[in-house]
Amino acid sequence: MNDILHTPATLRARSEAAAAALPGLLMSADRLAATVLLGEHGRKRAGPGDAFWQFRAAQAGDPRRSIDWRQSARGDAHFVRETEWQAAQSLMLWVDDAASMSFASGKRPSKLRRAQTLALALAVLAVKAGERTGLATLPEPPRGGRAQLIRLANALMEGGDRPDYGAPRPRVMPMGARAVFLSDFLGPPEPVADALTAAADRGVRGVLVQILDPEEEAFPYDGRTLFESMSGTLRFETLKAGQLRDDYLFRLAARRAALRDLCSRTGWRFHLHHTDASPEAALLSLYTALERHR
User: How many domains is the chain partitioned into structurally?
Assistant: First the structure.
């Protein structure tokens, strides 16, 4: 079976399918980013840089050389000319592409597609702000520019053998960077704890985004039900699925509580997103959380 999956014809078909989806992903990310983008990434605050931001009234302790004498000559008060904060930062992204992320109920997008779109939209915002961005799983360092967005989109769309559940194993994580990890986080929790602990040791702060389909929250199953993993490697059949609901919901809540506690201990933030919810609201929430980590 594995030999059939790896024939040149099959690999070519998968590559062509990914290439066909690439423009759509980029377009979706651009449109999503446009709903949040205000001016220059909405940053507008004082700091080191060359771009003029605003005048403010001089205060005790301001050096004499910072006073703008031309503006001050227009009245009785002294004014300081402030520049806008322009220090380049790095935003690192991890998108779980394991088989479990392919799940979608009804006509909703898959967890993977929503994760890809949110991640690329964040990259668009970072690039427009003059920042560097990259995928934590790639060996290349983060870069800026539109060409980097195309590289990231290509990498996000790459196929390959995928396990049932994914785990973050960053290869590149610059000191002091910000990061966003997007996954359903339904697999073993130990690699997640290791990744966030290692990131915190490097001064990296960010957001853990758990993406779930509404059916995974509601567990609307009853009677005879066959449960099968997205890869088909795990199967479980029961005649009384409804009796499993309470145990399932308890374990899901426990996993989420553990993730929240991990984020609290490592200086990260936790965000829950469902695929039937607004991606615009999710992006705005992530943008706000990342701004607080500057």
Answer: 2
- Indicate the average pLDDT of the chain: 80
Are both 26 and 168 inside the same structural domain? yes
Same domain, 197 and 62: no
Give the pLDDT confidence of 207-243 residue by residue, as tens digits. 999 999 999 998 888 888 777 766 667 777 777 778 8
For 29, the token pair is 């990310």
Residue 136 lies in a domain: yes
Tokens for 37, please give them. 């983008």
121 and 162 assigned to the same domain: yes
| Residues 6 or more apart in contact with residue 82 via CB below 8 angstroms | 46, 52, 53, 54, 55, 56
Q: In the block, which residue shows the tokens 């998968």?
A: 14
> Do 170 and 193 lie in a common domain?
yes
Q: Is residue 46 part of a domain?
A: no
What does the alpha-carbon distance between residue 110 and residue 21 come to, in Å, rounded to a whole number?
A: 14
61, part of any domain: yes
Q: Are 82 and 56 in contact, with CB atoms under 8 Å apart?
A: yes
Q: Which residue type is seen at 96?
A: D
Tens-digit pLDDT profile for residues 154-194: 898 876 678 889 999 998 899 989 999 999 999 999 999 99
One domain for residues 136 and 279 = yes
Q: Give the residue among 106, 243, 119 at the shortest CA–CA distance from 181.
A: 119
209 and 105 in a common domain: yes
Residue 202: which region, alpha, beta or left (left: phi > 0; alpha: psi -120 to 50)? alpha
Read off the pLDDT of residues 245-254 as tens digits, 9 standing for 90 and up.
889 899 999 9
Higher-scoring residue by pLDDT: 6, 125: 125
Domain assignment of residue 35, given as a range: 2-41+87-292
Confidence of residue 8 (pLDDT cuts 50, 70, 90): very low
Is 195 in contact with 171 (CB distance < 8 Å)?
no
Question: Higher pLDDT residue, 47 or 281?
Answer: 281
